[in-house]
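Researcher: Quick test of sequence recovery. Tokens follow.
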């Protein structure tokens, strides 16, 4: 390697340093974000090895390897497979019914002609997002519980229907209540990104469609939907990549032992093993379950991303 080539190789590096110095305040603003991901996302990855060890009080490094015993126990533990099944079913329901709802709501809001009324609608639909699931659980209990408003109204028309009434403890209705309440809480918030995508569509396309005699349904089908299809694809890939996340906050605040059979997901299962039931499992087992869940999420994310790319849409990777 000649001195000239070494000098030429240093030029891009010096140029990069000069650019970074010129924008030093911007890079300084990135430091808290970088620190967050390093401290809370990358450093804890050291603990993943607990999934393959029997934890002892001396620490992770001193804990002995256990020849995949946690994963073997996971497959034989009687409550794990039902929790896995419930996680997949609830996540599938959320995708099937919950994913299209913000898209439809965004299109309907966009079709409102009065700007002031449109802003009022956006505010109303977005507000539930800022309520915690603790508050939402209280609201649902007052509506659907054994002494809730729905029962009292139902008894006016059908006397005696309130006997043994409690929809929140009904195994057959619990999953539907999860999906409906999640849509009510998050659909308005989900419309924001789709409304932004709709706002980016060239308005001359709508003007040309009007001149050609297209009605509103045709404009939605041939202009609005194709204009936001890339954003829909990206959001779908991200949603599929979180299939194993069943919604811990929501279910934890809503479920009780009578609905464990249909409502217990992997996250609540781990919580009960770790903090509620004296099962004797150590942190290694719960780490193994968490690793299993995240590996499945990663595989689904890559598959969804590959399929979306094959269909000619933009993706996140």
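Model:
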């Amino acid at each position: 390697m000649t001195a000239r080539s070494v000098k030429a190789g240093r030029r891009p590096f010096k140029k990069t340093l000069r650019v970074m110095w010129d924008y030093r305040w911007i890079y300084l603003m990135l430091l808290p974000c970088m620190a967050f991901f390093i401290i809370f996302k990358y450093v804890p990855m050291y603990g993943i090895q607990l999934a393959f060890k029997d934890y002892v009080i001396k620490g992770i490094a001193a804990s002995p390897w256990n020849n995949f015993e946690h994963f073997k126990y996971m497959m034989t533990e009687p409550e794990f497979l039902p929790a896995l099944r419930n996680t997949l079913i609830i996540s599938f329901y959320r995708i099937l019914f919950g994913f299209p709802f913000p898209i439809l709501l965004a299109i309907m809001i966009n079709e409102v002609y009065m700007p002031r009324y449109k802003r009022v609608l956006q505010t109303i639909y977005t507000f539930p997002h800022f309520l915690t699931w603790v508050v939402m659980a209280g609201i649902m209990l007052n509506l659907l519980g054994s002494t809730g408003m729905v029962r009292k109204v139902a008894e006016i028309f059908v006397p005696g229907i309130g006997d043994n009434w409690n929809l929140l403890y009904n195994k057959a209705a619990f999953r539907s209540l999860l999906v409906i309440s999640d849509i009510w809480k998050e659909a308005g918030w989900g419309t924001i990104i789709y409304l932004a995508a709709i706002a980016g569509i060239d308005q001359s396309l709508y003007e040309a469609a009007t001149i050609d005699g297209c009605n509103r349904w045709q404009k939605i089908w041939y202009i609005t939907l194709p204009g936001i299809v890339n954003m829909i694809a990206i959001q779908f890939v991200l949603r599929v990549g979180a299939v194993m996340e069943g919604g811990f906050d929501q279910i934890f605040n809503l479920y009780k032992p009578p609905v464990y059979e249909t409502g217990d997901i992997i996250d609540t299962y781990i919580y009960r093993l770790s903090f509620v039931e004296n099962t004797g499992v150590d942190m290694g087992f719960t780490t193994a379950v968490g690793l299993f869940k995240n590996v499945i999420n990663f595989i689904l994310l890559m598959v969804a991303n590959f399929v979306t790319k094959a269909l000619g849409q933009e993706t996140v990777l």
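Residues 2-52 form one domain.
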